[in-house]
Write a structure and sequence with these properties.
Layout (H helix, E strand, L loop, with lengths): L15 H9 L6 H31 L1 H27 L4 H50 L2 H8 L9 H34 L1 H9 L4 H43 L4 H11 L5 H17 L1 H26 L8 H15 L1 H26 L6
Helix pairs in contact: 3-4, 3-6, 3-8, 3-13, 4-10, 8-9, 8-11, 8-13, 9-10, 10-11, 12-13
Length: 373
């Protein structure tokens, strides 16, 4: 093609080879086209990074609710354990076995409330009325010493609360109580739904995994569920054993309010290491209100019960569950306690057990190729 001056315009002649080369090489494209091509290629990575950041923010701000859901999963696994056992050994269908387990639990709770409800309620109220004067009496004894006065100053601001502060404290206490009730309701409803249709939720999670990794993810989830189920069943037996041993021991010692103190010891035993210490404090305070000799007996009783639990019962009951080093349990309790408060301390041990199973299967076995037991 000739330009107006009669010269050939070579810039407008494009051969097929040049066109193909230009389409294959993004760098040969005009600047706008090359930028668009790079943006299209970077879009999946940007989307992935945005999802990771959003998930991290959601986990950070909603950590308490994620841990509540984890508690619901634990409770559903505890309900499924006897239901699966019944379904495997009887002609009952799965839903009927679960319904029978639920009715049995409600019936046992009803019978326990009928026979022991009044005693537990009255003794719990008496315990609540008895502890504050005992603590005040103990504080008066501590104030007699100079070191005790320095210690008490750390916990006192030296100012008496005003009427507005008292009302504000009452409102906060009421709000906290409502919050606890709401959290318990969330856990119970989630556990019921998950126990009724576990495959629906498990399959929904697996749909988010790529096909080539889906079977391995299924194996990991099944292993975590099996380990948590064994740990929960064993822990339930341990809690019942601790409650019975503590009740028998306190009754033989003649300690008042033995029933609520024993129930508290059994429930708090769900939290390793921290729970037994917390459960011994009210019992020791009740012993202080009786006599110094009773205080020593109560402390020795709790020490003996925990020794039996740690050296005899736990190795027998939890020997088939995952082994967790004590330092790992304490670290998990400290970390989750700092991040989520008391709920973090409660779920720290089963959460650490699930984490250990996932790391062993996904990292040690798959990434490192170590198949050792």
């Amino acid at each position: 093609m000739l330009d107006p001056m009669g010269r050939r315009d070579s810039a407008r002649i494009v051969t097929p080879a040049m066109a193909a080369s230009s389409s294959r090489d993004p760098n040969s494209l005009p600047p706008a086209s090359a930028t668009h091509e790079r943006a299209v290629r970077a879009l999946p990575y940007v989307g992935t990074a945005a999802l990771v950041v959003a998930a991290a923010l959601l986990l950070w701000y909603g950590l308490t609710y994620f841990l509540l859901l984890f508690l619901g999963i634990l409770l559903s696994l505890l309900l499924r354990a006897p239901a699966n056992w019944l379904a495997a050994r009887t002609p009952l269908p799965d839903w009927a076995a679960l319904a029978l387990v639920g009715i049995t639990i409600v019936g046992l709770l009803g019978l326990g409330g009928f026979f022991f409800g009044n005693a537990v309620a009255s003794q719990t109220i008496e315990l609540g009325e008895r502890l504050p004067p005992t603590i005040e009496s103990l504080a008066e004894r501590v104030r007699e010493h100079e070191w005790g006065q320095r210690v008490l100053r750390l916990f006192q601001d030296g100012e008496k609360p005003s009427g507005g502060q008292v009302v504000g404290g009452a409102v906060k206490a009421a709000g906290a109580t409502i919050g606890v009730i709401a959290h318990v309701a969330i856990v119970l409803f989630f556990a019921a739904f998950l126990a009724a249709q576990p495959r629906v939720y498990v399959d929904g999670v697996l749909k988010l995994i790529p096909l080539r990794r889906r079977q391995r993810a299924c194996d990991v989830l099944e292993s975590i569920g099996e380990v948590l189920q064994r740990w929960l069943v064993g822990q339930a037996v341990l809690m019942l054993s601790i409650a019975i041993l503590t009740f028998v021991g306190l009754t033989l010692l003649g300690v008042p309010l033995a029933l609520p103190l024993a129930l508290l010891a059994g429930v708090l035993n769900f939290i390793p290491y921290v729970g037994p210490i917390l459960s011994s404090v009210p019992a020791i305070l009740v012993g202080i209100s009786e006599s110094p000799q009773m205080t020593a007996y109560v402390a020795l009783l709790f020490l003996g019960v925990q020794s039996v639990e740690g050296y005899v019962l736990e190795p027998l009951i939890q020997q088939r569950a995952v082994y967790l080093p004590p330092a790992l349990i304490l670290f998990a309790q400290l970390l989750l306690g700092l991040l989520a408060g008391p709920i973090g301390v409660i779920v720290a041990t089963p959460f650490a057990a699930a984490f250990v199973v996932a790391v062993r299967m996904l990292y040690v076995e798959d990434a490192l190729g170590d198949r050792a037991a």
